[in-house]
Amino acid sequence: MLNVPTLSPSLRENTLSLADNLTVMTDGVFSSLLKMKEYADLTPVVRLDVNESITFSARLWFRSILNGTPPSQEDLLVFQEFGKRRVHQGMPLPALLRAFRLGSLELWRGYILIAERNESLRGELLFNISPYLLEYFDEMAQLISQAYLKEQFRQARWRESLQHQLYGIIFTFPEETGEFHKTAAALGLDPSAPRIAFAVELPEADSNSPQFAQELDSVVSGIARRLTVAEDFLLRVWHHGRLVIWVPAVPGNAMNANDRMMAGRVAELREALPASAMMGVGLMGQGARGWASTADEAIRALDFGMRCDDGRRVYFYSDIVMEESVRGTDTTLRYLVSLIEQLSGDPDLLLTLETYFEQCQRRKAAASVLGIHPNTLNYRLERIEKLLGARLDDVGWTTKLYVALKLRRAGPRIALNRDA
Questions:
Q1: Is the pTM of this model over 0.70?
Q2: Top-level class of domain 193-319
């Protein structure tokens, strides 16, 4: 409990004079605060709230020193609300406490001016007012810090609860568009904004470790930094042993444009990952179903990369989208595989077809790579057309054969996927 000193009549009169000029003092504090970036960047509404809190705090001091009593519980509750609001306004605690230091400094300057004019009051100011002023502002700073930290913790728990609710909607009930929009908006996210999912494999991460959350935060921070995106705009969850991160896509851009943009930053994405980590990148998705789809695609791309293990570390679903689409239909898969099986009895024909597509269907280049005469190449291609009933000048057929060859190169991976 604060012990409020009793003022002499002369000091009371001078203190009343200071209180009457309250605006000069509070304006000085507010002007000093606006030199700090944390205050300069505030919206006009929040600035007004800060100014009102400075005025309230100054009046609280003068009421206490003039009445000879500590602030009432009702006043302290109002005072603590300022600290709670600063959490939601995004103000760091050090910036909040800076206002108290400036406030106490401005008050003391006012009393120094009194001491300069009234030598008889110097002792009272030095031995009575000065200790109380320091103790008072220390107590009030502790009080508002506690209110700030409690609210920050409560907000973190609240956000965590909402995030789990959002993940449940995305992965389990994506058809609940109303709940998705409401929950995303409550988290400060734009539910209509398109996003791209990353799925990250972290072999060395231990979900039971006390440092686990920090490890995930470190990966998310690294990605945010390299993509020059505010960390608050990223959404992350530990899903079936993988870190899934949704990053904002460029609104209005086509799916392919956003995918190419991410592909252009693949080196930066690699740098953001721990040495042993791998990443899958999904296609752009919008809404609950879209966010769920891009996460599933990122996981599929990651699974492909882990089976492939060719050292790239970052894998894009767009690179396997045709094969994945085919795998989704048993009949289509069997049909395409059967095309290549018809050529398996003649390795020369199979090699010829592969080389033909590798050389972008340029016959002269394909013949040169194979080391055969162009007429021999033409003969082999005619045999392929006859065996398959195909036409290599038909776009439909060339597309089917191209995908079939890619599926063949995937080899055992197809069987693994079908058995999963």
A1: no
A2: alpha beta
Task: Give CA–CA dist 205/4, Å, rounded.
Answer: 56
In this structure, what token pair is assigned to residue 342?
């018809």
Q: Domain 325-419, what fold?
A: Arc Repressor Mutant, subunit A (1.10.10)
Q: For the segment 355-390, what is each residue's pLDDT rounded down to a tens digit?
A: 998 888 899 999 999 999 999 999 999 999 998 888
- The CATH label, of 1.10.10, 3.30.70, 1.10.490, 2.30.110, for the domain at 9-156 is 1.10.490
Q: How many residues does the chain have?
A: 420
